[in-house]
Amino acid sequence: MAAAAVAAAAEIPPAPVQIAAAVLAAPAELREGAAVYGYDAQGKRVWLREGKNEMVCLATDPAAKTFNVACYHKDLEPFMARGRELTAQGVTGAKRTDVRFKEIEDGKLAMSKEPRTLYVLTGTSFDAATGKVENSYLRWVIYVPFATPQSTGLSTKSTESAPWLMAPGTAGAHIMISPPKPKM
User: Fold this and answer.
1) Which residues pair with 139 in a beta bridge?
2) Number of neighbouring beta carbons within 10 Å of residue 67
3) What pLDDT shows up at residue 8?
4) pLDDT over 90 for what percent of the chain?
5) What is the end-to-end Cα distance of the chain in Å, rounded?
6) What is the dihedral of CA 149, 155, 158, 159, to 10 degrees?
7) What's the number of CA atoms in the CB half-sphere (13 Å) around residue 133?
8) In a 3-state reduction of DSSP, which class is residue 177?
9) 153 Rama sector, left if φ>0, alpha if ψ -120 to 50, beta otherwise
10) Sign of the Cα pseudo-torsion (4, 40, 27, 88, in order)
11) Mean per-residue pLDDT for 114-141?
């Protein structure tokens, strides 16, 4: 979404509010030192805070109807940045994933060779006064390049009760861990 459209669509929360909300996806012990990428008063994506550890957190899009933040190891930044770039170009969903995985395979996009975790927290809204997310739902994505069902012992069937493997055998192979969603 263009910066002007973001600014026109929603009021941009102050940086401290964006930071407080963004880091909620990260484990508690990593929140204080995480770098945070959010929005300035004009709706342009900017670094709101430099990091002191390996984590990068993304503030929720102020124009989005729901709350969605993500934190991940800094080695995933090229992969995540490319996803943001594709989304801005209108490439979304499975197509965005396909493009990134193909670019990794072709050597055009760097992907960590080590397992790295992405933490995602979604919900309906964030209350800055309490620091709570309404109807929150946390899930973890552990990128394990070239992992297979045989190497992990995991099924490729989606489940809410156990981890499962997505994109097996590819540079973008990842383990999904999704606790049951709350009833909204």
Assistant:
1) 120
2) 20
3) 47
4) 70
5) 27
6) -140
7) 23
8) strand
9) left
10) positive
11) 92
**CA neighbor of 37 nearest in space, from 64, 15, 63, 9:** 15
Read off the tokens for 161.
């009760």
User: Tens digit of pLDDT for each residue in 132-179?
Assistant: 999 888 999 999 999 999 999 999 998 877 899 999 998 889 999 987
Distance of CA 147 to the CA centre of its chain: 20
Transcribe 105-148 into DSSP letters. Answer: HTTSS---SS-EEEEEEEESEEETTTTEEET-EEEEEEE-TT--
Encoded tokens for 77: 């930044």
CB 45 within 8 A of CB 56: no
Q: How many CA atoms lie within 13 A of 24 on its CB side?
A: 26
Residues 6+ apart with CB under 8 A from 29: none
Are 59 and 44 a contacting pair, CB within 8 Å? no
Strand-pairing partners, residue 73, are 55
